[in-house]
Every structure is written in C-alpha cells, then in structure tokens.
Specification:
Blueprint: H1 12-18, E1 23-25, E2 28-30, E3 45-48, E4 51-55, H2 59-67, E5 73-78, H3 81-96, E6 98-100, H4 101-108, H5 115-125, E7 130-132, E8 136-139, H6 147-152
Antiparallel strand pairs: 1-2, 3-4, 4-5, 6-8, 7-8
Length: 168
C-alpha cells in the first residue's frame, strides 16, 4: 500500500487504504487520525495543527533539556494557509495516488484558486503517468513509482542536497 509499506488483509492499515482513510506522517503510513504527533528523542519531529517542531539533534543536549524540564525543540515552522493546502494535496497523493482538487478548493476557498492550473501543469509534466480531469489529479498505476516526485512538485519549499524541505 502507498509507496513503501505492506499490510495483511484485514489489518487496520489495509482497511484504511481500501476505504480512503490512510494517512501519512513522519513515521510512514498510519490509520491514526490524530492531528498531533509528538516526537520523542534527539532530532525527533513533532507535528501540530499549527505547524512542526524539531528537537535538538545532539543527544547530550536533548537529554540536558529534558532533565532540566525545558522544551527540547530547537526549531519549528508555523504553517501558513498555503502550507495546509499543499499538505492536504500531498497527503492525498501519497496515500491514495489521487488528489481531489475540487474537495481541497471547497475546503480552502479562494486561497486554493491556484490549484487547477498547478494540477494541470504537473499532469502535463508527468505525461501519461498522471492525469487531471479538472477535479481529480490521479497518478496512474504505471506512474506510482514516481508518486514521491509528483507530490514533491507541489512542495513550496526548496530542497537541500539530501532532498529534505527547508521548512523543518
């Protein structure tokens, strides 16, 4: 299911994938619908409805913060409305190999007015691997190995040499 995980029939992840309820977070695919993910440990990333935070990466410094009762977060990112639009779109693509552009536009109104043109551009860039009918952007079965690249086309943040977004 998705791009890099497997689940047995009847497993919660398989049911979530089959029913369109699959989610994706920093740990991979999940059927957990919580909007909050608390990262524990050095370098761990947490997600909140408002954005992300990342703990200090040095283990000794992380432990010092925890032992002294201080927050261990070293940096964070407050999500803009545009970030939330893109996150919804990317999660749909990564989990379902399709994104309902009409649904996202209904959820975000005028702030998402750029979506149809951008979806059409991405569909054209990926040729027969991606289709767009004006409402649904779909990664075709033969294009699924490129799902991460299709999703990345909607990432508003520049990537570093390792391919990580500078948002975190």
């Amino acid at each position: 299911m998705g791009i890099d995980q497997f689940a047995r029939g009847g497993d919660g992840l398989e049911v979530a994938a089959r029913t369109g309820q699959l989610r994706r977070n920093f740990q991979g695919y999940t059927d957990d619908t919580s909007e909050v993910l608390i990262g524990l440990g050095a370098s761990a990333i947490s997600r909140f409805p408002q954005g992300y935070s990342q703990n200090v990466s040095a283990t000794a410094i992380y432990q010092g913060h925890v032992r002294s009762g201080r927050f261990a977060a070293a940096r964070g990112h407050v999500m803009t409305r545009d970030d939330r639009i893109r996150a919804m779109l990317i999660e749909q693509l990564m989990c379902d190999f399709r994104a309902d552009i009409a649904e996202i536009m209904a959820a975000f109104g005028e702030d998402a007015a750029w979506l149809p043109a951008e979806a059409a551009r991405v569909a054209q860039a990926f040729g027969d691997f991606v289709s767009f009918d004006g409402e649904i952007l779909a990664i075709q079965p033969e294009g699924r190995p490129a799902a991460r690249l299709v999703a990345r086309a909607f990432d508003a943040y520049a990537l570093d040499r390792e391919g990580h977004s500078h948002a975190i």
